[in-house]
């Protein structure tokens, strides 16, 4: 195997790495997801603040009802005291006091029912607020976790691209100028200039290569091209001999 071909394939691998790194650097999907998470956070935060405001209003209403309940109880207790201790046999006074006490009892019942409803609503809101708080924590954690991983991925791609460009320049000085120019020319047509041979198949065009071309690649010390696409062919000697499929000859 021509050593220049191995170096040419190494150049190709580094160009492939640059291509993949550029894809990562141009990929805006992580920015979209971060914006989406931020939007979800803002929505959840708004709901959280609104529910907290609602809870404060409920507590305020409950405090007001508690004051009204205390006043109604005091009024009823006063009227009951008058009924049992002051009215005596005054039927008119007794009737008025009993009527007032019934009204106060109904008022107390209505206020107590309203207070119970407020307590139920308060419990529901507290649960909803806690759920929203946990959601905010979760979104925030996901945001910073994804941001950190994305930043690491982007930085890794940037460093790999710099290293690949440096490696290409290093290899470029070790191969003939004409070979590098040919690689550049082939890459102007396609992203792959040097293709690995897999069995009898060109890794570039995925088509079968002739036996003669394979023999040239194995035995000669020159640059060999694919019969079909014209790419420079390379095969990895460490993988062993190339497996070929021979057609069985039909005897006459």
Describe the structure.
Residues 94-174 form a coiled coil. Residues 202-233 form the C4-type zinc ribbon domain. Keywords: Coiled coil. Pfam families: Zn_ribbon_9. This protein has 252 residues and is mostly helical. The protein has two domains: 27-155, Helix Hairpins, CATH 1.10.287.1490; 176-239, no CATH class. It contains five helices and three strands. It has helices spanning 3-26, 29-85, 91-172, 177-189, 211-219; strands at residues 194-198, 201-202, 232-234. Strands 2-1-3 form a three-stranded mixed sheet. A hairpin with a 2-residue loop joins strand 1 (194-198) and strand 2 (201-202). Helix 1 (3-26) packs antiparallel against helix 3 (91-172) and helix 2 runs antiparallel to helix 3 (91-172). It is rod-shaped. The relative contact order is 0.14.
Brief digest:
By secondary structure, the protein is mainly alpha-helical. It has helices at 3-26, 29-85, 91-172, 177-189, 211-219; strands spanning 194-198, 201-202, 232-234.
Shape category: rod-shaped
Q: How many strands in all?
A: 3
Number of structural units classed as domains: 2
Spans where pLDDT lies below 50 across 5 or more residues:
246-252
| CATH structural architecture of the largest domain | Orthogonal Bundle
Strand order of the largest sheet: 2-1-3
Order of helices and strands: HHHHEEHE
Write the layout of secondary structure elements.
Layout: H1 3-26, H2 29-85, H3 91-172, H4 177-189, E1 194-198, E2 201-202, H5 211-219, E3 232-234
Parallel strand pairs: 1-3
Antiparallel strand pairs: 1-2
Helix pairs in contact: 1-3, 2-3
């Amino acid at each position: 195997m021509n050593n220049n071909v191995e170096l040419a394939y190494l150049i190709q691998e580094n160009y492939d790495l640059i291509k993949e790194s550029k894809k990562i650097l141009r990929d805006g999907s992580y920015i979209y997801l971060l914006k989406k998470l931020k939007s979800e956070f803002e929505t959840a935060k708004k709901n959280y603040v609104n529910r907290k405001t609602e809870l404060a209003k409920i507590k305020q209403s409950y405090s007001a009802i508690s004051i009204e309940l205390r006043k109604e109880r005091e009024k009823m207790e006063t009227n009951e005291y008058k009924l049992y201790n002051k009215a005596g046999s005054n039927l008119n006074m007794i009737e008025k006091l009993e009527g007032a006490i019934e009204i106060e009892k109904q008022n107390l019942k209505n206020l107590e029912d309203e207070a119970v409803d407020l307590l139920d609503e308060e419990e529901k809101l507290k649960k909803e607020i806690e759920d929203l708080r946990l959601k905010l924590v979760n979104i925030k954690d996901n945001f910073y976790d994804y941001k950190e991983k994305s930043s690491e991925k982007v930085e890794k791609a940037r460093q790999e691209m710099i290293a690949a460009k440096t490696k290409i320049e290093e290899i470029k000085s070790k191969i003939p100028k004409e070979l590098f120019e040919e690689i550049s020319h082939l890459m102007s047509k396609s992203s792959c200039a040097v293709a690995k041979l897999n069995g009898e198949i060109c890794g570039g065009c995925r088509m079968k290569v002739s036996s003669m071309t394979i023999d040239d690649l194995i035995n000669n010390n020159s640059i060999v091209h694919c019969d079909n696409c014209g790419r420079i062919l390379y095969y990895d000697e460490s993988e062993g001999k190339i497996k070929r499929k021979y057609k069985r000859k039909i005897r006459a």
